[in-house]
Amino acid sequence: MLSAKGDSIDRVLGLELGADDYIGKPFDDRELIARIRALLRRANAEDIPQDSKVIKIDQLELNQTQFQATFSGEPIDLTYTEFSLLLYMVKNRGKAISRDELSREILGKRHQAFDRVIDMHVSNLRKKIPDRDNGMPWFKTIHGLGYMFIE
After folding, report:
1. 114 or 66, which is more confident
2. Helix axis angle, 80-91 to 117-128, nearest 10°
3. In terms of C-beta density within 10 A (0-12 exposed, 13-18 middle, 19 or more buried), how is residue 67 classed?
4. If we measure between CA atoms, which residue out of 103, 109, 57, 71 comes closest to residue 84?
5. Cβ pair 47, 36 in contact under 8 A
6. Nearest to residue 55, comparing CAs of 78, 89, 104?
7. CB count, 10 Å around CB of 58?
8. What is the rounded distance in angstroms from the CA atom of residue 37 to the CA atom of residue 41?
9. Whole-number mean pLDDT of the chain?
10. Residue 65: how many CB atoms within 10 A of its CB?
11. CATH class, 50-149 region
12. Among 66, 127, 61, 124, CA closest to 90
């Protein structure tokens, strides 16, 4: 619910009447997008069969309901954004994904020409995820476009 009424009693009433969430005006666009995405994640998590809530590639496991990544059973300390980026790339593995698509899907904003945020997060993932046994990299940089998760 998005309302000009932002008092505590109005929020409580809105939630008690069935709203899943309540934001008062004025509001931050990014907060609204984040709340919508959180709601969609919760709704989608209920629809995902139990066995598909965990994605496993080699020794890397991504638990979509707990937002937890592990490698050989050991937890990988990822931020929410890093986990979301990794999950998105894993779900689109083998496909070249532009920085703009990653920025829109993960950060909720368009990629700017000199914006290095996505590059920084991919760099952090490369540092945090241990190497594969076969020596293959997890990510491939597609010059002038973006990245690809290699299966």
Report:
1. 66
2. 90
3. middle
4. 103
5. no
6. 89
7. 13
8. 6
9. 85
10. 13
11. mainly alpha
12. 61
Distance, in Å, from the CA atom of 111 to the CA atom of 100, rounded to the nearest integer, reads 5
* Cis peptide bond N-terminal to 26, omega within 30: yes
For the chain, first and last CA: distance in Å?
A: 41
Which amino acid, 118?
I
Alpha-carbon gap, residue 104 to 52, rounded angstroms: 25
Residue 66 has pLDDT above 70, yes or no: yes
Looking at the chain, which residues constitute the CATH 1.10.10.10 domain(s)? 50-149
User: Residues of 10-23 as b/e, b for ≥16 C-beta within 10 angstroms?
Assistant: ebeebeeeeeeebb
d(Cα 92, Cα 140) in Å, to the nearest integer? Answer: 13
Tokens in use for 25?
A: 């005006």
| Structural tokens at position 32 | 């609204």
Whole-number percent of the chain with pLDDT over 90? 42
Torsion of CA 114, 33, 127, 95, to 10 degrees: -80
How many other CB atoms are found less than 10 A from the CB of residue 50?
A: 7
Note if the pTM is more than 0.90: no
